[in-house]
Design a protein that fits this description.
Blueprint (H helix, E strand, L loop, with lengths): L2 H7 L13 H13 L9 E7 L3 H6 L14 E8 L4 H18 L3 E2 L8 H8 L5 E2 L3 E5 L7 H10 L7 H4 E3 L15 H8 L10 E6 L2 E7 L13 H19 L4 E4 L10 E9 L2
Parallel strand pairs: 6-7
Antiparallel strand pairs: 1-2, 2-4, 2-5, 3-5, 7-8, 8-10, 9-10
Helix pairs in contact: 4-9, 8-9
The structure holds flavin mononucleotide.
Flavin mononucleotide (FMN) binds next to helix 6 and helix 9.
Length: 280
């Protein structure tokens, strides 16, 4: 399956079946997590697959817990990162690669940045004092039926909907919408950003295209920034957007690199993050 197909296929799964994950799949996932160390801004992230399958740990899961939001999951992917500039973007980028890997293995996932017991999972990770645990994800086979909490979550976040192209993508400046054009080489990578996950489905990414350069900006949702201290959900969202954009662009043979060029995009509420400098 192509990465673009995997990106299209992913959606949040909050209800898991009892079916265990085969040992060879667990090994493959663990290896992927261990090798996933290349982040765009150079943060060092260590990922771990946390296993709650043993009897004592099955009771412990209630303690670290996800406040009833996630049902039936016995494995979680968690990661720790040092607190430095752009570490949230790096975390979003690398963790989304884990999510896509799990999706390709036909396993369900769900980004959790808020509805989990951060200190319980931090303990399980052996979190050092200078490290942050920004978000985790359950991983396992999807259950047949969505739980009521899952349905409510999807409904309140409007998870099945996305903003339209003209609200997210611009040409030259933030006031000029970019038309969706299937003949443009960047149409698919931008669409992969648009359909990606974001915290509470706020979709804070805005992209300004200037020829082969694409400037990634963030419009913060008022009141959202301070909720989790140093953990900035919407900067994680930006890393997810970078991941979807880069993987799909490279798959289509569009090469380029990330650069912080600060092209004076800071207008009004728009916060400049990074640019993709296309090498075509
Ligand atoms: C950074 C981040 C944090 C999230 N935190 C939570 C969370 O705490 N609890 C939850 O149930 N979903 C959480 N989500 C999942 C989003 O609500 C979900 O991705 C969005 O509604 C879009 O739905 P979809 O993933 O099914 O496409 C989070 C997503 C992201 C990207």
């Amino acid at each position: 399956m192509s990465t673009i197909e995997i990106i299209k296929r992913r959606s949040s799964c909050r209800t898991y079946s009892d079916k265990g994950i085969d040992q060879d799949k667990l090994d493959e996932l663990r290896k992927f997590l261990a090798d996933n160390t290349d982040s765009p801004f150079g943060s060092r992230i260590r990922f771990q697959l946390l296993d709650f399958t043993t009897e004592t740990e099955a009771s412990e899961i209630k303690a670290p817990g996800t406040y009833g939001v996630i049902k039936g999951a016995k494995y979680f992917i968690a990661g720790a990162v040092g607190n430095r500039p752009k570490s949230m973007e790096d975390y979003g980028y690398c963790m989304e690669k884990n999510i896509l890997k799990a999706t390709a293995m036909e396993l369900g996932t769900c980004w959790l940045g808020g509805t989990f017991n951060r200190s319980g999972f931090g303990e399980k990770m052996g979190l050092a004092s200078e490290e942050l645990l920004p978000a985790i994800s359950p991983v396992g086979y999807s259950g047949n039926k969505r739980s009521i909490i899952d349905k409510l979550f999807r409904l309140s976040a409007g998870s099945d909907k996305r903003k339209s192209w003209h609200e997210l993508f611009f040409k030259g400046n933030i006031g000029t919408p970019l038309q969706q054009d299937s003949s443009s080489p960047y149409e698919k990578p931008l669409e992969c950003v648009r359909i990606g996950p974001s915290a509470s489905n706020k979709q804070p990414w805005r992209i300004i295209k200037e020829g082969g350069n694409l400037h990634f900006c963030l419009i913060r949702t008022p009141g959202y920034n301070a909720v989790f201290g140093d953990i900035k959900m919407q900067n994680i969202d930006m890393g997810i957007a970078m991941c979807h954009f880069e993987l799909s662009a490279r798959e289509l043979g569009l090469n380029g690199d990330w650069q912080v060029s600060d092209p004076l995009m800071q207008t009004g509420d728009t916060e400049y993050i990074v640019s993709w400098i296309g090498s075509e």
